[in-house]
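Supplementary Methods, section 5.1.

A reviewer requested that the exact input to the structure prediction be made available. We therefore reproduce it here, unchanged from the version used in the analyses.
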Amino acid sequence: MRKNGIKNTRINGEVQKELSKIIQNEIKDPRIAPMTSVVAVEVAPDLKTCKAYISVLGDAQAAADTLEGLKSAEGYVRRQIARTVNLRNTPEIRFILDQSIEYGVNMSKLIDEVVRTEEEKKEEKTND
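The structure derived from this sequence is encoded token-by-token as follows.
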């Protein structure tokens, strides 16, 4: 079975949507940061395992606490997905911290800083 087949892509999207709803609305763990988002979900073709990439807005401690809270709620999340998504097997979910959004924001800031520095140099040359 192909890993990125149409069926697998559809399952990934459905599980991601349901996982986002569950994290935002149903889990009441205070360790989970309010600005937690599900960036991507990869369900294995045999539907046994699932990697959920999570992004947390906040510092490193908030991200660590959120991951800990999600891991403790893993059974509840799996049960809720089993109820809402009609799959032969409900995958075992592994939460992975995804820092790509934070990395992109930092790179954007660095690029803006370089552009601003270049513009200041041009203004100094024109003023001289």
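The longest helix spans residues 100-127. These observations are discussed further in the main text.
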